[in-house]
Amino acid sequence: MSSVFTKIINGELPGRFVYRDDKVAAFLSIEPVAYGHTLVIPVEEIDKWTDIGPSTWKQMNEVAQNVGRACIEAFGSQRAAYLIAGFEVPHAHIHIFPANDMGGYDLSTAMRADATDPAKMDEAAAKLRAILGTDDNGYII
């Protein structure tokens, strides 16, 4: 059975993409710790980050770093947080989010999907895409 992330990549479930290519995709978390919280994932369905091949891992981290820079610029945060947890969905992913303290590292404090403001989610995605130079589907313009 496909992971929820694979279903998002395949268009079976909606996603707010900020980046995508043939190896890596990045889209907003539906349960963010802050608006702009992005998940960077391999397109290939791989459960554990420790099983990702070197070239895909390199590409994921390049995308994560670019998304992190975009988070700082778009949201005026002091830093961009980087977190690998890996228990929520059996598909490897890196959490990137704007951070001014350690609070966001506790994913139990994330907003629930039904508590987020859709307009703010759309705005966050648009801000990140504008900085990253990607279109509404996350592809480089």
From TrEMBL:
Residues 4-107 form the HIT domain. It is an enzyme of class 2 (transferase). The keyword Transport does not apply. The keyword Cytoplasm does not apply. InterPro entries: Histidine_triad_HIT, HIT-like, HIT-like_sf. It holds the Pfam family HIT. Coiled coil: none annotated. A motif (Histidine triad motif) lies at residues 91-95. Its EC number is 2.1.1.-. GO terms for molecular function: methyltransferase activity. This is HIT family protein. It comes from Corynebacterium breve. The lineage of its organism: Bacteria, Bacillati, Actinomycetota, Actinomycetes, Mycobacteriales. GO terms for biological process: methylation.
